[in-house]
Design brief:
There is one protein chain. With 279 residues, the chain is α+β, with helices and mostly antiparallel strands. The protein has two domains: 1-66, no CATH class; 113-278, no CATH class. It starts with 6 loop residues before the first strand and ends with a strand. Strands 1-2-3 form a three-stranded antiparallel sheet, with no helix packed on it. Strands 4-5 form a two-stranded antiparallel ribbon. It has a two-stranded antiparallel ribbon with strand order 6-7. Helix content is 44%, strand content 14%.
Length: 279
């Protein structure tokens, strides 16, 4: 059958099946016999009617005569038209990760959790010093009240008193304004850096940035306001006695969320439609 043109023929090993002849040898491609019994062609083999000719498009879109694309090797990026990944990509570690867990839809790598933590610590320190001219007075007055209270506690202990010394409410009188001002300064600090550069100084130091999940570049003002405003509301709620316990849990949950989220988004990222990416 060496001179027979490529096409589907009755499988010599199983007459109920058709097998593809590539023009020089039998392939492993088989399919059930379909339609009326095929006519007998050369070499006593049954050939299907109207077999596709050279250059003609077959049932599954393959154009006969075109060279097939080579199969991708393990770990090789497979792309669709336009250059976007077509399949889950191999990543360091075990198995494969899809686009949702490793990259944005256009292929930019997402930041790891620890980079975000270190960036937040650096930004918190920087914003604290920026806010100090506005919060210094309240911190000083609060420390004076706390020092006086600790002295009363020590005096009561030396006197053998078992009655606890209540913390004076003046502590909250100064501590709450200091916290509120600090949170507002952090909001402005983060918002301005995100809309202008897409990254705060802390994020610059750790090599990460904030962007819309589907659009590269610094996030627009609306998205940045949602992202920073979500944190601000939680921080302000955390300054309220008693209710602050629940707000503090929500803050913790917000920053831990990327650890199990398939898109590595914190809750403030989901509200704003953003991702933190490697730069």
């Amino acid at each position: 059958m060496s001179s027979q043109s490529a096409g589907w023929y009755t499988d010599p090993e199983d007459p109920t099946q058709e097998r593809y002849w590539d023009g020089s040898a039998w392939t492993d491609q088989r399919r059930p016999q379909e339609g009326p019994a095929p006519y007998r062609g050369q070499f006593g083999q049954a050939r299907t009617a109207d077999a596709p000719q050279y250059g003609q498009r077959a049932e599954h879109g393959q154009v006969y005569g075109q060279q097939a694309e080579p199969a991708p090797q393990y770990g090789q990026r497979v792309t669709q038209q336009g250059g976007y990944p077509a399949y889950p990509q191999a990543d360091s570690g075990f198995g494969y990760r899809g686009q949702g867990s490793g990259t944005t839809p256009d292929g930019q790598p997402l930041s790891g959790w620890w980079r975000r933590v270190f960036a937040l610590i650096l930004d918190s320190i920087i914003a604290w010093f920026i806010a100090l001219p506005l919060t210094g007075y309240f911190y000083y007055q609060s420390s004076q009240v706390m020092t006086s209270w600790l002295e009363d506690v020590m005096d009561a202990a030396r006197a053998g008193s078992t009655t606890p010394v209540a913390m004076p409410p003046e502590v909250f009188k100064y501590a709450i304004p200091a916290s509120v001002i600090g949170y507002l300064v952090f909001f402005v600090y983060e918002y301005l850096f995100l809309v202008t550069k897409g990254r705060t100084p802390g994020k610059m130091a750790t090599g990460i940035a904030v962007r819309l999940r589907d659009v590269p570049g610094p996030p627009p003002r609306g998205a940045a306001a949602k992202r920073c405003g979500f944190d601000l509301v939680l921080y302000l709620a955390g300054s309220i006695p008693i209710f602050g316990i629940f707000a503090s849990l929500a803050i913790l949950l917000n920053y831990l969320w990327p650890l199990w989220d398939d898109k590595k988004q914190a809750l403030h990222d989901k509200v704003a439609g953003t991702n933190v990416v490697r730069v």
